[in-house]
Amino acid sequence: MEILILTIALTVLAIATAILAFRYRSWLSGNRGPLLLSAAAVFFVLAFLVLFYRTPGTDIGVEQPIPFSHRVHAGVKNIQCRYCHPYVDYSNNPGLPPVEKCLHCHNYIIANHPWIKEEHRYYNTRTPTPWRKANYLAEHVLFNHQRHIRRNLACKECHGQVERMDRIRGKYFYMQFCIQCHRRLNANLGCWLACHS
Q: What is the total count of domains within the chain?
């Protein structure tokens, strides 16, 4: 969507520039040098802003305190989402895995790895792992995972192919995303019955 808006804005700007250039072509011919310099400056500022805010590699997801690969765990090892996110079946919050859940396996698997030792430090100090949030939903929306699981919706319908991501890219869930899915699946569209109650 952002790319579409940027493309439309640049197209409108190019058309407006062409119309003005044609209309004032005699005046432009005498000021070619300063105008080219100004155009180059505008181009470089816009390019800097685009690269600064959309730098390649920034879409890799939130850095977590313990580098956790969903690709390895959900993909290669085929661990089901509900194993690590245990409350998703009966709570509005899917839950983040407690330290004990990680150590259930990692007491035996690569137990001496430095990051697993860090996980042991959290466990020994009775400190929860400070996982960082990746997905965001407006606070006034009451999202219930349980309803969606009952309809047999796979996690990847909303979260994407997590089994291919090392880091969860995360997303902001906007109303348009939900409405499109509800229409496609012929689900409830009543505001207060579906999401805002």
A: 1
